Amino acid sequence: MKLIRYTHGARTFIGAVDDGHAVDLATLLPDAPGSLKEVLAGAANLYPRIRSALAKATARVPLSAVRLEAPLPDAQKYLAIGMNYEDHAEEARRAGVTVPKNQLWFNKQVSCIIGPYDDVQRPRASNQVDYEAELGVVIGRRCRHVSEADAPGVVGGYFVANDVTARDWQMASPTYTLGKSFDTHGPTGPWIVTPDEVPDPHDLEMRLTVNGELRQKQNTGSMIHNIWQQIAHLSTVMTLMPGDLIATGTCAGVGIALGKFLQPGDVVRVEIERIGHIENRIVQEP
Q: Taking CA atoms, which of 134, 138, 237, 271 is between 20 and 30 Å from 189?
């Protein structure tokens, strides 16, 4: 099942996708939650009811007639791991960057989150804006001290992410947060795909193009620290909440390694097998 936030007319709804159409959850369930975070938290009860109601739903709108929004603009946390693919770690080594032996985590401030097809700004303060194709994971239930074996059970779904980065700001600080958190530098979506539609999140092809030119291509099985290890590691430190976002790392081919930073007018597309794609135009910040 694909869970969405979408705008149609002057209103924004939460819903599900069925046969190329958006269906408002409020038309499916009389007690439908008001946010996708609540849907994720109530998945055990809600998902079977939503699927059953979808089969009989008549009130629906073609996806071509709606605007897909960021599925979880109200995420409490957006956490991302650095240098988690060996080919990306190797290009970092060649550039003289120290590659950590352990999991390297940083925050993307949630104010950076935008929708799957929204414009990404090149900030006034940076001319080194870069892209990073990543598989995103959404936490589905409140959890702490999760083992690797139990980690699949706390996942609420998957999404496509571009960890847009201002490299000059990233490198100017011992922590990455500022360089990762400029407004609009967190495009996410196009929806949340529930785990039943992704039998193995560690066997998905991931691709990124800029203006149609292939820049990144890798299989998610090439992660150094897999998703279950990431969740176990993070939940040792903090309570993870429904709707928390995790970006699981990028592969080789980033712009800084190629000497190709993003320019206004560029169009960046990230595609992940079984999940979908996002596509964002780069514009100059006014």
A: 237
267 and 147 co-located in one domain: yes
73 in any annotated domain: no
Q: Which residues contact 133 (CB under 8 A, 6 or more apart)?
A: 161, 162, 206, 207, 208, 216, 250, 251, 270, 272
Please tell me whether residues 161 and 35 are part of one structural domain.
Answer: no
Contact 161, 277 (CB under 8 A): no
Residue 17: C-alpha distances to residues 1, 72, 162 (Å): 7, 16, 22
pTM above 0.90, yes or no: yes
Span 10-32, mean pLDDT?
94
Q: Are residues 62 and 104 in the same domain?
A: no
Phi, psi of 152 (to 5 degrees): -60, -30
Do 269 and 279 meet the contact criterion of CB atoms below 8 Å apart?
Answer: yes
* CB-based contacts of 199, cutoff 8 Å, min separation 6: none
Range of the domain at 44: 2-68
Residue 59, pLDDT above cutoff 90: no
Q: What are phi and psi of 8, to 5 degrees?
A: -140, 125
How many domains would you assign to the chain?
A: 2
Specify whether 125 is located in the same domain as 265. Answer: yes
**Per-residue pLDDT at 100 exceeds 90:** no
